[in-house]
Specification:
The protein is of the alpha/beta class. The chain has nine helices and eight strands.
């Protein structure tokens, strides 16, 4: 079981269960292909662009973007940093015995940075695109994060945010079912109908904002159960309970030996405005 004290932010959560999350993603790297492809599609990536993925987890986005697009994965949780196979742009402070020095040469295809997501020590107007997939609901201040994203974007740059929508089945599953079957609990702060306006108020023009339903796909029911156990940290549930939760809250479809579970995220694409 995980430590049961209250855990509130992304770094604390994934410092405890990031290794299990990463194990799930490595075992089934294509299970969530639909959501990775959707966020990439909305980003309208162009050859030679420099993009940021934050929070990046284990650098999973790299597998879904073109080889000629340069990626900087920005992450805060040590298990992801330790297991991420992207080249390190810096060593962790504790490894250096002091504050890390940043190498701002982004000439390589992929690099990994360790940083607080509200204060990233990079210059203004660094990136052409910033993508954030399914991690923002654990950030304590989405407004502060969006303003930091705006600072880092070049003029006319695009920010694509994808996360769970309040009152959706995914929200119910995470904040009720997972909350009851993960000893750390789960209380995400999800996107809602007012989020596009809030992003706009941070200095963006909204291009697109809508929920998208799709599936997570698996070769077998057993793989789906194992994946969800690790990804969501379901240490208080057995296999039968996990399957029942997926079936009753989200919905599961079987086709032959394969199966897929329903999922949904809100996708927001926004352009940095010229003012300020």
């Amino acid at each position: 079981m995980f430590q049961s004290q209250p855990v509130r932010n992304y770094t604390e959560i994934f410092n405890q269960r990031g290794e299990l999350y990463h194990r799930a993603m490595m075992a089934q790297p294509n299970a969530r292909r639909a959501e990775f492809e959707r966020i990439v599609q909305l980003s309208d990536l162009q050859s030679g662009q420099l993009i940021a993925d934050m929070p990046s987890g284990g650098g999973y986005l790299r597998a879904f973007i073109p080889d000629d697009v340069r990626l900087v994965a920005v992450e805060t949780a040590s298990p992801f940093l330790q297991q991420n196979d992207l080249p390190r742009n810096q060593k962790l402070a504790e490894e250096q015995g002091g504050a890390p020095e940043w190498n701002r040469d982004f000439s390589s295809d992929s690099q990994l940075l360790c940083s607080d997501l509200s204060q990233i020590p990079l210059p203004d107007k660094t990136f052409d695109r910033v993508l954030s997939l399914a991690g923002a609901h654990h950030l304590p201040d989405l407004d502060k994060f969006c303003r930091e994203v705006r600072r880092l974007l070049k003029p006319g740059g695009t920010f694509v945010l994808a996360d769970v929508l309040e009152n959706s089945r995914a929200a119910q599953y995470l904040n009720q079912w997972v909350d009851a079957h993960n000893s750390m609990g789960h209380q995400g702060i999800f996107l809602n109908q007012f989020t596009p306006e809030a992003v706009e108020n941070c200095g963006f023009e909204i291009n697109f904002a809508a929920p998208k339903a799709y599936h997570w796909e698996f070769d077998s029911e057993a793989e789906m159960i194992s994946y969800c156990r690790s990804l969501f940290g379901l240490d208080l549930a057995d296999d039968a309970q996990i399957l029942e939760g997926l079936q009753t809250v989200l919905g599961v479809e079987k086709y032959g030996a394969c199966c897929r579970m329903n999922w949904e995220l809100m996708f927001i694409s926004a352009t940095k405005t010229a003012s300020n």
